[in-house]
Design brief:
This protein is of the alpha/beta class. It has a single domain, classed as Nucleotidyltransferase, domain 5 (2-Layer Sandwich). It contains two helices and five strands, in the order βββαβαβ. A five-stranded mixed β-sheet has the order 3-2-1-4-5, with helices on one face. α1 packs parallel to α2. The longest helix is centred in the middle third of the chain and has 19 residues. The radius of gyration is 19 Å and the shape is extended.
Length: about 130
Amino acid sequence: MVVKKQSKKRIVQTENGKVFINATFNNTLVTVTDEAGNTLAWGSSGRAGFKGTRKSTPFAATTAVETVVKKVRDEHGMKNINVYIKGPGPGRDAALRAIRAAGLKMELIADVTPMPFNGPRAKKKRRG
């Protein structure tokens, strides 16, 4: 019987990073990466323990962001972040407030919600 030795995770220490917030109508997803884009921590309203319609509340988004930011700040020593927000959900503003309350310095806040340039094809013209 061959037993594989598990490799020990290296904890990357970095002061700068990026926070990606995807605020949908049903959930709020939070991912924290280093400057190169390697994921350091992630979380969501569902992972924070909320189910059903309570997942889509601003309070659930705040809780999710607090847990992720606390982990990154304590384990990786992060201090400065760039925030990228995507989506129209109710957790948008609450997530920003939670990051500010957690003590991280926000150097950039960018809205990266995809917007169509020309939209879908128009309905056919009415005859009459």
